[in-house]
Amino acid sequence: MISQIAKKEMLEMRRDGRFQVASAIVLGLLLVSLGIGWQQYVSVNRQHEMARAETREQWLSQGKKNPHSAAHYGVYAFKPKSPLSLVDRGADQYTGVAVWLEAHKQNEFKYKPARDANTLARFGDLTASSVLQLLVPLLIILMSFSSFAGERESGTLRLLLSMGIAREKLALGKALGVAGGLGMLLVPAALIGSAALVLASDSGSFVANLPRLGWMTASYLLYFAAFVGISLTVSALAKSARLALVCLLGFWIFNGLAAPRLFSDVSRTVHRTPSSFAFSQRMDGELKKGFDGEALKKKVMAQYGVTSMEALPVNFLGISLKAGEDHGNEVYDKLYSELWDTFEAQNRLQQQGGVVAPLMAMRSVSMGLSGTDFAQFRDFSVAAEKYRRVLNDAMNDDLKNSPKTEGPYMADEKLWSKVPEFAYVMPEVNVVLGQQAWSLGLLVLWALGATGMAGWAATRRLRAE
Amino acid sequence: MLQAIGLSKSYGAQTALDGLNLEVKPGEIFCLLGANGAGKTTTINLFLNFIEPTSGLAKINGLDVASDALETKKYIAYIPEQVSLYKNLTGLENLDYFATLASGAAVEKSRLVGYLREVDLPSGAEDRKVSTYSKGMRQKIVIAIAMAKQAKALLLDEPTSGLDPKASNEFSQLIRKLAGNGTAILMATHDLFRAKEDGSRVGIMRQGRLRQVLNTDEFGHADLERIYLEHMHD
Amino acid sequence: MIGTVAKQEWRLLKADRTLAAVVVLMAAMVGYSLYNGSSWVAFQRQTLGAAETEQAERKGKLLKTLKGIEEGRIEVKGTQDPRSAASIGGNSSAPYLAMPPAPLATLAVGQSDLYPYYFKLNLRSKQAILANDEIENPTNLLAGRFDLAFVLVYLFPLVALALGYNLISSEREQGTLALAMSQPLTMREMVTGKIVLRGGLLLGLVVLFTFAGALLTGVDLGSSTVWLRLGLWVSLMALYTGFWFGLAVLVNSYQTSSATNALTLAGAWLGLVLVLPSVANLVATSMYPVPSRVEMVQAMRVAGKEAQSKGSMLLAKYMEDHPELMPAGEKPAADFTTLSYAVQMEVDKKVEPVLKRFDEQVEKQQAFVEGFKYLSPAILAQTAINDLAGTSLGRYQHFSRQVDGFFDAWKGYFLPKVFAKTKLGSGEVAGLPVYQFREETDGDILGRVGVVLAGMLVLSGAVLWVGYIRLRRVSIS
């Protein structure tokens, strides 16, 4: 019975020219965006791999130098692109790609790709995620707005109900019909997407990304289920198919267009971002406070049990530089954590916007699992900064223990190669799931709530006339 | 007043109206009878210039409707089968709109109310929304539009279908009154009884052709039904 | 006749509360977006104000120190001489080069959240200056802002389509079409009456609310350039309204049901406003890919390393070329400061072709995109609104050129003094050039927006024209 209804729904969809054209367009856009995403991932990743090797080579081959001078020369860290970014570019275009790790200073990430983009970029990226998050729900609405309302208008609903079909079976059949129609579209796309992922990543990273891909698929299915539920509910309750369509389009616009902007405005108002000017003024102020050089001298002399600086068995410059680094690090840690906590508070509030607009939750989950959200950008920034400190400490330690000879002290490749190469590993999927708990919970609620509502509306509120 | 000269309309191979010759004089009520698809509505649509004739002429007040569409519409009023008005507006507001469109200038409210009294709309109903009206009441508004327009010819498309006998009777009286004032009336109908009662002449159509024209004072009700059925059978 | 139809439309809209809904919706959207825009402008002004204060304080302190030294009250000690050209030009008197928000900046955030609106000058490389920008949560940048431009470009067409999707189909569906067309009234007159009222109403509301909002948020209506921009903005919105109503007429002329019209128009909106721009962007980025910044970083690093290794040689060479800069009676001094500037200059020279290639490619892509904008009225509208609000790429480039010019002049003044180890006095510091942002002229704006308006006129005209031609064939029966 149920399968009969679902079959008839799918048959109707196949016969409907509008649905065919719309599906073809959505599928086409999905495939194109996956293809472009794959190509971008491959080319950016290659560049970053090359640059990473080059920056290491430059570090090793910098020749004879004073260690502090080497620390000033520093290295660059390039944010690696995650393989799943071919599905969702997330905030990647708006975070810098490279950071210079040098002495004394925690630098900002520079070169946001968006700044080099053309003016159309602000209309939105065409990525697989934007197709999945915006266009597929629209297709669901198109497929199901007239499910009940249309049958009522054409009078076939009377006929169906007069034949004694249980309403819950009718509703389930309709829902399965929509799901089947959607499946015809998404299953090939998902297969092609996975193939692109296999091509994009070496075997190891593909396996590593499998859990992320699995969770991502599951969360998109929840999102689609929510839309099927909402559409069927509205179609069962609305007086006419036209009214159902208008209501659903209204919700779609709110969900897809207005909500992201509204919640980003609200989050910015609730958790204020300082201006770059105020931030750097504060940073300069805190850094200038510095540390007490005389006190440090006394402390070091006491530590080594000597009474004059000349008698110190170690090079004081190394100690003083290290103390300077430590003071700076304290300031950086404090100010950047504050700033980044503000961003994360803003993002959390936007996730919670998922209560009224499921897109907010979906977007957050999708970016998170793709490894392109702010949290994982922060994770990389912190790792890069940690590496900077390892590098600086190594240089200052060497300087401290350098022989006190006339003329400047020079270190060579032996020292440079002591500093390990910077290697970054993306956080485990569990970490991401923890960050996205709110969003995932909301998606589950939406899916259950909306399908439940649809069942209720179809069994209790469906009128034949 | 209304004149069809060899008026034909075909859609591809299918002929909807075939060489119609007809004249309706001022004060005359001409009833077109015939099954669905006989060409009655096509005739009316041709007089309204809603469709263009394949050949022949439709004339109103001596003017060809195809070449003088706007001018001829000043002389006619049309009552469609499904009388629909703007349901969120009151009867008076509806009348005001169409009367203004018809005459090209605003019409005083008192005159409009006068027309509504003349068509016997229950007093007070003019300020209610049309969505609360019966079909008979909506029809009265449309007749009031015709009056406000001082139409010289009236085109009616199955006006009495769906009316209860009392409303149907009231409607007859109204159009007879209009005919008495010199309006030429062309009415497509299925209602043989009304055709005999109200019409000056009846014409029986089949498959786009006008088969026979009869003067209503020359036969009785039973005769009309017999003649009509004869035409339908052969 | 058209007036009668328009009056009737007014009655109809009032009767079914559409009018009230449209007024409330537009007031809420325009009001909220202008509030958003004005708080962003206030934020920028506040930041620029703080920067200006800091700059004045810094310079005041420097002048006081210099006077003190000149009058012998203050003694110079340590390695850092406050009178040195490197210290004065690179830090203590280095100005902020700011681009204040344009008079109508509240209309559109545009690209202003992405590109910096002020730079702190130094004597180092331009890249170091340009790469700075405002702090912002990347997630927020991704979402964009709920500014007036968003309301006008994205949401306004939807309201227009909601008012226009059933222009003819509703009359047909409720059965009043035949009655109306049996009057001496043409289909074109009826449609004109309807779109004049509905479109005019919508346009009027937007203009009214925006003017009110502009006044409330403190836009100075006294200047002629503001009126010119507002005039252009009203013309743009009139044409944009015309386009969407024209589309509604065109779709209605196919005599499909209201529900089908709604779907078709929603599809057209989706295509023109969302899909087309992103597809165009995709095509542009694929045809003219911008070289990766990573490559550029590497090129700069290689150049830097090379220059570093022959730093003293570079300095010596520079001094050979400019013997007049040789400090009297000294050998070319290879101290840290002069050396680093010599290296810097070499790096700049080396990196220049890389940067140029980079900029050229960005420009090529942008030029390619320029052609695309005529495909979609939404892109046209967004471009023009950004231009009028002074948040367009064009104004940033205008600013960037001024920064370039000033930076070159600044370096041209200071660098020779750095190499010659000249010390500056308070008189020279007080007489240093002051940066003043030159606003784009009305002619610049008119030129850019005029082209867009012409494009919009063609698009709207074409849609309306085809729609009106098709109206003749609409059957009534």
Physical arrangement of strands within the biggest beta sheet of chain C: 1-2
Strand content of chain B: 25-35%
Instruction: Give the SSE string of chain B.
Output: EEEHEEHEHHHEHEHEEH
Stretches of chain C where pLDDT falls below 50 for ≥5 residues?
Answer: none
Q: List how many beta strands of chain B DSSP finds.
A: 10
Question: Could you say which structural class the secondary elements and strand pairing of chain B correspond to?
Answer: alpha/beta
Number of helices of chain B: 8
N-to-C terminal Cα separation of chain C, in Å?
A: 22 Å
- In percent, how helical is the residue content of chain B? 25-40%
What proportion strand of chain C? under 5%
Count up the helices of chain C.
Answer: 18
- Look up the CATH topology of the largest domain in chain B: Rossmann fold
Label the overall shape of chain C: elongated
H-E order of chain C = HHHEEHHHHHHHHHHHHHHH
Describe this protein's structure.
- The complex is a heterotrimer of chains A (465), B (234) and C (477).
- By secondary structure, chain A is mainly α.
- Chain A has one domain (2-460).
- Chain A has 17 helices and two strands.
- Chain A has helices at residues 2-15, 17-60, 67-73, 128-144, 149-154, 156-162, 167-200, 203-237, 241-270, 276-289, 293-304, 316-352, 358-370, 374-400, 413-418, 429-435, 437-460, and strands spanning 75-78, 98-101.
- A two-stranded antiparallel sheet of chain A has the order 1-2.
- The longest helix of chain A is centred in the first third of the chain and has 44 residues, at 17-60.
- The two termini of chain A are 23 Å apart.
- Chain B is of the alpha/beta class and 234 residues long.
- Chain B folds into two domains: 2-75 and 156-233, 3-Layer(aba) Sandwich (Rossmann fold); 89-151.
- Chain B has eight helices and ten strands.
- In chain B, a hairpin with a 2-residue loop joins strand 4 (55-60) and strand 5 (63-64).
- Chain B starts with a strand and ends with a helix.
- Chain C is mainly α.
- Chain C contains 18 helices and two strands.
- Chain B binds chain C through residues 41, 45, 48, 50-51, 69-71, 73-74, 76-78, 80, 82-89, 93, 97-98, 100-102, 104, 129, 142, 145, 149, 155, and chain C through 1, 4-5, 7-8, 11-12, 15-16, 174-176, 178-186, 475-477.
